[in-house]
C-alpha cells in the first residue's frame, strides 16, 4: 500500500485539461526534460513493476498462510508474524527511506531498496525454518519501505507535462490501489498451482529485470541540498516510535488491546514521538520539516489515507477469509474471485481516472470513489453463509474495483500538491506511513472485532460457520464506516 509525489501538481491554480487541473511549471528536472517520450514510458513501466512487487507482498501471503503453517509447523500465534514482520519494518522505515532519497538521490535509494527486497524474497522462498522466514520477511519490509518512499517521486520527475502526468498517475495509481487485490489473486494461483515458496521466488526474475532496466532508464541527476545532514537522532526516534506502534497494533489481538503490554508499548511510542517532535523543532536540518503538517491538503489527505487503507486492507483480507472459511473456496478459486474487480480497477485507473480528475477536479472523483467503496463493504456485510458468487460476492468486488480505480489517483494528487521539490521524498514518506499505519491498524482492529464476535456467538451455542460469517459481517460494517468517513472527510480538501 504506497506513495510519493510532488509539486508539479502543486501550483495547481485552476487548470484543467481543458481547464487542466495541473500546473506544468513546477517540479521540473533536467534529466526528465532530456528524456525521450518513449523512454519515459518505459521507465514508468519499470517503476510500476518495482512498486507492484512491493504492494503485492502486503496481501499475497494471506492466501498461502495455511500452506506455510503446515509446511514449517507454525503455531496460530506465530503464523501471524509472517505478515506482521513485514508490516512492522515497512511502517518503521518509510520516513527514513523518503529522507534518504531526498539527500542521496531517489534513483540510488530505489536501486538499494530493490536489491534488499529481491534478495530477501529469495531468502523467503528458500526458508527452511520459522525464524529464517520471519527474519527474511522483516528485511523485505525494509527494502519495500525504501522503494515505496522514492518511487513516485521518480515518476513525477519523469513526467512534467500535465496530460502525460495525469495519464502516468493513472497507471501508477492502479498499481498502488489494485496491487493488494492482485496479490490475493496471484497468491491463490501460485499456491494452488505450485506451492507457497513461489509467492516469494516469483520476485527474483522480476527484481533482476527491474534493476537492470532501472540502470538504463531512470534519471541519474540529483542535486543534494547544500550543507544538509541526515538528522540521525530524529531518524532513530521516529523509526523506533513507528516500529513500537506497529508492533503494539499487530500484536494487539494476541496480547489483548487493554493489556499492560499493548498499552505500555503504545504509550512508549507516543513518548518517543513527542521527543521526536521536540528534536525536529530544534535541529537545523530536521528529518521531517514540521511546517509540512501545516499544509492543509497534505494533513487532510493523510487522515483520509489512514481511513481508506484501513477499509481496503481489511476488505482484501476479510473477503478472502469469507470465501475460504465460509463458502469453502480453494486458494485458486479465491484468487480467481478477485479477478473481475482487478480488471474493473485496471480499466478505471488506466482509462477513466485521469479523465475524471481533469474533467471534474480532485475532490468530486475522490468522494464518489470512496462512497462506492463504502457501498461495496456494506454489501459484503450482509453476505450469507450460503452465499452465491454472482449475487453475494461479484457486486462487492466490482464496486471495490470501481471505487479504488476512481479514488486512488486523486487521493495521491491531493496529498502531494502542496509539497515542494526538495521535500517531496519526506512528504511521500509521511503519506506512505499514513497508508501503512492505517492498513496495519485497520486490519488488526477489524480482525479483532471479527474474532470477538465469532467467539461470543460460539460461546452462546452458535454453529462455527454462522459465528464466522457474523464476525466477518461486523468487520465489514466497521470497514464501511471507515470508507464512509473518508468520503465525508474528502469534502474538507481545499481543491476542486
Description:
This protein is mostly helical and 496 residues long. The chain folds into three domains: 30-221, MFS general substrate transporter like domains (Growth Hormone, Chain: A), CATH 1.20.1250; 231-286; 293-496, Up-down Bundle (Growth Hormone, Chain: A). The chain contains 20 helices and no strands. It has helices spanning 30-33, 37-56, 60-72, 76-79, 81-104, 106-125, 130-158, 162-193, 198-201, 203-217, 232-250, 252-255, 260-280, 296-326, 331-337, 339-360, 363-380, 389-416, 424-459, 464-489. The longest helix is centred in the last third of the chain and has 36 residues, at 424-459.
Helix count, DSSP H or I runs of 4 or more residues = 20
Please identify the oligomeric state: single chain
Strand content: under 5%
Please identify, by name, the CATH architecture of the largest domain: Up-down Bundle
Termini separation comes to 25 Å
- Taken together, the total number of domains comes to 3
* Radius of gyration, in angstroms, nearest whole number: 21 Å
The helix content, as a percent range, equals over 70%
Arithmetic mean pLDDT? 78
Work out the number of β strands.
0
CATH superfamily of the largest domain: MFS general substrate transporter like domains
Q: What's the helix-strand series?
A: HHHHHHHHHHHHHHHHHHHH
Which structural class matches the secondary elements? mainly alpha
CATH fold name of the largest domain: Growth Hormone, Chain: A
Largest sheet: none
* Apparent shape: globular
Amino acid at each position: 500500500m504506497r506513495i510519493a509525489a510532488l509539486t508539479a501538481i502543486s501550483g495547481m491554480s485552476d487548470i484543467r485539461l481543458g481547464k487542466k487541473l495541473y500546473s506544468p511549471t513546477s517540479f521540473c528536472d533536467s534529466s526528465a526534460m532530456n528524456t525521450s517520450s518513449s523512454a519515459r514510458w518505459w521507465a514508468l513501466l519499470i517503476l510500476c513493476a518495482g512498486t507492484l512487487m512491493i504492494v503485492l507482498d502486503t496481501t499475497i501471503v494471506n492466501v498461502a498462510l495455511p500452506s506455510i503453517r503446515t509446511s514449517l509447523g507454525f503455531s496460530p500465534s506465530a503464523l501471524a508474524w509472517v505478515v506482521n514482520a513485514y508490516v512492522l519494518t515497512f511502517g518503521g522505515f518509510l520516513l527514513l527511506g523518503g529522507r534518504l532519497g531526498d539527500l542521496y538521490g531517489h534513483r540510488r535509494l530505489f536501486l538499494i531498496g530493490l536489491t534488499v527486497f529481491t534478495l530477501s524474497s529469495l531468502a523467503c522462498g528458500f526458508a527452511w525454518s520459522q525464524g529464517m522466514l520471519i527474519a527474511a520477511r522483516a528485511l523485505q519490509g525494509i527494502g519495500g519501505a525504501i522503494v515505496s518512499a522514492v518511487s513516485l517521486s521518480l515518476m513525477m520527475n519523469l513526467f512534467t507535462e500535465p496530460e502525460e502526468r495525469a495519464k502516468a498517475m493513472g497507471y501508477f495509481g492502479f498499481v498502488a490501489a489494485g496491487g493488494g487485490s492482485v496479490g490475493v489473486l496471484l497468491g491463490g494461483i501460485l499456491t494452488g498451482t505450485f506451492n507457497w515458496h513461489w509467492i516469494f521466488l516469483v520476485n527474483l526474475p522480476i527484481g533482476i529485470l527491474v534493476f537492470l532496466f532501472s540502470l538504463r532508464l531512470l534519471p541519474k541527476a540529483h542535486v543534494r541540498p547544500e550543507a544538509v545532514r541526515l538528522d540521525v537522532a530524529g531518524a532513530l526516534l521516529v523509526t523506533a516510535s513507528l516500529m513500537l506502534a506497529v508492533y503494539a497494533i499487530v500484536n494487539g489481538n494476541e496480547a489483548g488491546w487493554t493489556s499492560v503490554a499493548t498499552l505500555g508499548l503504545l504509550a512508549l511510542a507516543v513518548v518517543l514521538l513527542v521527543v521526536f517532535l521536540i528534536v525536529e523543532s530544534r535541529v537545523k536540518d530536521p528529518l521531517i520539516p514540521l511546517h509540512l503538517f501545516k499544509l492543509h491538503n497534505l494533513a487532510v489527505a493523510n487522515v483520509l489515507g489512514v481511513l481508506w487503507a484501513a477499509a481496503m486492507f481489511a476488505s482484501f483480507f476479510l473477503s478472502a477469509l469469507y470465501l475460504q472459511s465460509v463458502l469453502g473456496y480453494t486458494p485458486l478459486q479465491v484468487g480467481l474471485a478477485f479477478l473481475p474487480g482487478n480488471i474493473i480497477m485496471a480499466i478505471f485507473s488506466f482509462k477513466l481516472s485521469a479523465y475524471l480528475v481533469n474533467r471534474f477536479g480532485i475532490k468530486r472523483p475522490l468522494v464518489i470513489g470512496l462512497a462506492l467503496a463504502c457501498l461495496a463493504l456494506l454489501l459484503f456485510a450482509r453476505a450469507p453463509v450460503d452465499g452465491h458468487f454472482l449475487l453475494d460476492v461479484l457486486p462487492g468486488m466490482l464496486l471495490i474495483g470501481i471505487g479504488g480505480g476512481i479514488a486512488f489517483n486523486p487521493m495521491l494528487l491531493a496529498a502531494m500538491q502542496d509539497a515542494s521539490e526538495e521535500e517531496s521524498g519526506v512528504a511521500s514518506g509521511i503519506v506512505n506511513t499514513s497508508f501503512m499505519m492505517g492498513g496495519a491498524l485497520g486490519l488488526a482492529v477489524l480482525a479483532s472485532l471479527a474474532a470477538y464476535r465469532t467467539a461470543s456467538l460460539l460461546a452462546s451455542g452458535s454453529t462455527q460457520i454462522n459465528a464466522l460469517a457474523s464476525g466477518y459481517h461486523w468487520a465489514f460494517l466497521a470497514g464501511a464506516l471507515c470508507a464512509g468517513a473518508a468520503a465525508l472527510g474528502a469534502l474538507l480538501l481545499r481543491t476542486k
